[in-house]
């Protein structure tokens, strides 16, 4: 029997922080099943999850769903209000369909948000795992670097990065991701420092498991709950950051649509064409609320005190 098999026969490795005995042949619900059950009981979070899933599907199928291309213009219906012929939500000052640009803007927002959060998560996991597990001088150096990054205003750092890299989706992903990994790295380090002293880790170590195997296979899965919570809250923050950069004129290059750019443009025509501001602002607010409510549900799901006995 290998070290991995010996440890897995005694403890579960996909918990929320506490190792859980596993008896072969039983049908006991695991920690993930219990967390999912608690999440489903959070009606607002579960409804938000369905809403966000629909948004993701809409973004993926944008070329099939959008009535027009985001660059197409209708010169006969410039600044047309909602309900204009062929334009459910109206048009902008160039005659471009608002609904179509909202759908393509959703594609931009989600691509940047998920890409930036993936970048931040990879950095946080790498630095947090190394610092927490190795300790000593490695931890001191990594956490000193983390403190320096934490002291630097993240939004200003993102502005500098976009200015250097140029206005593109790739630049926004890199800028927002690099500017937002610090808090997660600290959380990962704290979780690793706590979990590496647990009995199942000592058992794996005594059986000859390598450090990388212990960190990735036994420590990380048991720290995943708190990491998922911070990730679920970081996604709406990334969407807001992308919109904020667009408001400053540092978003994606026109004519690629962005909710932030649409809101900025609509605010200049608030009296003449209020629909240009209302439509993107409402969808932007609903999306942020939905992802935030999902974060609330994930936090409650992984909170042991919320489990019903």
Automatic annotation (TrEMBL):
Membrane topology per record: Multi-pass membrane protein
A GO cellular component entry from the record: plasma membrane
Organism, scientific name: Kribbella sindirgiensis
Family indicated by similarity: Belongs to the binding-protein-dependent transport system permease family. OppBC subfamily.
Ranges in coiled-coil conformation: none
InterPro entries reported in the protein's UniProt record: BP-dependent_transpt_permease (IPR050366), MetI-like (IPR000515), MetI-like_sf (IPR035906), OppC_N (IPR025966)
Residue stretches spanning the membrane: 44-66, 109-134, 141-163, 169-188, 227-252, 272-294
Listed name of the protein: ABC transporter permease
Subcellular location, record wording: Cell membrane
Chain segments carrying region Disordered: 1-28
Domain ABC transmembrane type-1 as annotated: residue spans: 106-295
Main location: membrane
Annotated Low complexity bias: 1-27
Keywords from the UniProt entry: Cell membrane, Membrane, Peptide transport, Protein transport, Transmembrane, Transmembrane helix, Transport
GO biological process, one term: transmembrane transport
């Amino acid at each position: 029997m290998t070290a991995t098999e010996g440890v897995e026969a005694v403890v579960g490795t996909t918990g929320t922080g506490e190792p859980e005995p596993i008896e072969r042949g039983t049908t006991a619900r695991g920690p993930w099943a219990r967390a999912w059950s608690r999440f489903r009981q959070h009606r607002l979070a579960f409804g938000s999850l369905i809403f966000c899933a629909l948004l993701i599907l809409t973004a993926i199928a944008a070329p099939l769903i959008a009535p027009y291309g985001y660059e197409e213009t209708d010169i006969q219906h410039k600044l047309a209000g909602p309900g204009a012929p062929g334009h459910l939500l109206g048009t902008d000052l160039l005659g471009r369909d608002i609904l179509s640009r909202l759908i393509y803007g959703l594609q931009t927002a989600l691509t940047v948000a998920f890409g930036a959060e993936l970048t931040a998560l990879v950095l946080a996991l790498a630095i947090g795992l190394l610092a927490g597990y190795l300790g000593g001088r490695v931890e001191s150096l990594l956490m000193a670097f983390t403190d320096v990054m934490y002291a630097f205003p993240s939004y200003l750092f993102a502005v500098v990065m976009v200015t250097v890299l140029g206005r593109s989706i790739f630049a926004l992903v890199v800028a927002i991701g690099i500017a937002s990994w610090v808090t997660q790295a600290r959380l990962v380090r704290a979780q690793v420092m706590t979990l590496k002293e647990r009995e199942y880790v000592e058992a794996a170590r005594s059986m000859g498991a390598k450090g990388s195997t212990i960190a990735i296979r036994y420590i990380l899965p048991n720290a995943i709950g708190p990491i998922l919570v911070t990730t679920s809250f970081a996604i709406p923050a990334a969407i807001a950051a992308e919109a904020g950069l667009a408001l400053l004129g540092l978003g994606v290059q026109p004519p690629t649509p962005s909710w932030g750019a649409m809101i900025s443009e609509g605010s200049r025509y608030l009296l003449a064409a209020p629909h240009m501001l209302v439509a993107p602002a409402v969808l932007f607010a609903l999306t942020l609320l939905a992802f935030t409510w999902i974060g609330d549900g994930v936090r409650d799901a992984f909170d042991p005190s919320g489990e019903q006995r």
